[in-house]
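Study this pair:
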Amino acid sequence: MKEIKPKRIFEELAELGVLGDLLQYQWREFYEQDEKFREDVNEILLKYSPCEVTVLEKYLLEQLCQSLQFFIDYTQVWMNRRL
C-alpha cells in the first residue's frame, strides 16, 4: 500500500514555478552554502517543476564541468606517462 504524505512547501512552490526564482534571488546564499539543502531542493525541482529552472540547470552544468575536468586531468596524466 502506498503511503500518503503531506506536500511540503517547497514542493508546492516548485509546482507553481516560483521555487527556482526564490533560490536564485532570495535564498541564494543558503542554497550555495548548505549542500544537504541544495540536494533536497534540486530533487524537488526535478520532480515537481513544470518548467525549466535555471538555478538547477546551472548547478547540474557545474557538476558536469567538474566531472569532465577531473576526467581530462586524469587522462592527461595517463597520456603523459604513456608517451
